[in-house]
Every structure is written in C-alpha cells, then in structure tokens.
Amino acid sequence: MAYWRPPWRGPWGTTYATNLRMYMQSLSEEQWLKKAKSLKTRPPMPWFTVQQMNSADLRAIHAYIRHLGPGGEPAPAYVPPDKEPPPPFVQFPGPPK
Ligand code: HEM
Questions:
Q1: What range does the domain containing 51 cover?
Q2: Is residue 83 part of a domain?
Q3: Does residue 57 lie in a domain region?
Q4: pTM: predicted TM-score of the whole model, two decimal places
Q5: Residue 1: per-residue pLDDT
Q6: Is the pLDDT of residue 2 over 80?
Q7: Which atom of ligand 1 lies at the shortest distance from residue 78's CA?
Q8: What would the pLDDT profile of 58-86 be if each residue is shown by its tens digit?
Q9: Using alpha carbons only, what angle is made at residue 24 by residues 21 and 27, rounded to the nearest 5 degrees?
Q10: Minimal CB count within 10 Å: which of 11, 21, 36, 53?
Q11: Domains in the chain: how many in total?
Q12: Which residue puts its alpha carbon closest to atom 17 of ligand 1?
C-alpha cells in the first residue's frame, strides 16, 4: 500500500504533509538552507523549529532525503476550511469563542 499521511483539519482548512522525497529532488543544498531558514506553512507543520535548526543539521537532512530518491506520490492538495476532506482525518478544535 502506498504511504498514507493523515489529513490535518482545523480552522486553517485541511493540510497534508508534503512528500519531502519529491520536494528535495529539485532543491540544491544551498536552496534548501535558504528555504528552511525562512520556511512558513499552514499548521500543524512545525516550521518555526525547522527555521531554528543549524546549517549542519539542515545539510544532513538534505543529504539523507536526497539519498532516499524521489519515492512515493505527491501529497493530496490543500482543502479550504469550508470544504470537507474525505475521511479519515485528524480534527483540531477551533479556538474558544
Ligand atoms: C524535521 C522535520 C520536518 C521537516 C524538515 C519538514 C519539512 C517540510 C517542508 C519543507 C514542507 C513544505 C513547505 C513548502 O511548501 O515549501 C513541509 C510541509 C508540511 N509539513 Fe513538514 N517537516 C517536518 C516535520 C513535520 C511534522 C512533525 C508535521 C506534522 C505533525 C509536518 C506537517 C507538515 C504539513 C501538514 C505540511 C503542509 C503544510 C501546508 O500545506 O501549508 N511536518 N514540511
């Protein structure tokens, strides 16, 4: 079975973690470093912790993912908040009103 990633649904809509094996193929090490240090995505991706990683660790992540090759399939497209994604999905509560 193909790798399955949980859809994350909350007030931001529904997001699917990017397939990094595909994503990294088109990025050089220097492009990845630049990207990682200014990364910002929708939740629940912890982009703020990736931004704070040091260059040596970011280079190691780049080398490791590239060595795996471009496996798997692209993640499903982002679903806006007013649309229901196909189940199952992880539902986050909204902030208290
Ligand atoms: C070292 C760990 C991680 C790295 C290096 C990483 C890296 C990335 C990158 C490069 C993207 C694509 C950003 C772009 O569009 O340019 C992404 C997207 C995403 N990641 Fe991560 N990630 C990590 C951990 C996680 C974790 C722990 C989660 C969830 C629990 C997560 C969830 C997501 C989601 C949902 C997206 C898509 C966000 C959107 O559609 O806006 N990631 N990640």
A1: 15-70
A2: no
A3: yes
A4: 0.93
A5: 52
A6: no
A7: 40
A8: 999 999 999 999 999 999 999 999 999 99
A9: 165
A10: 11
A11: 1
A12: 18
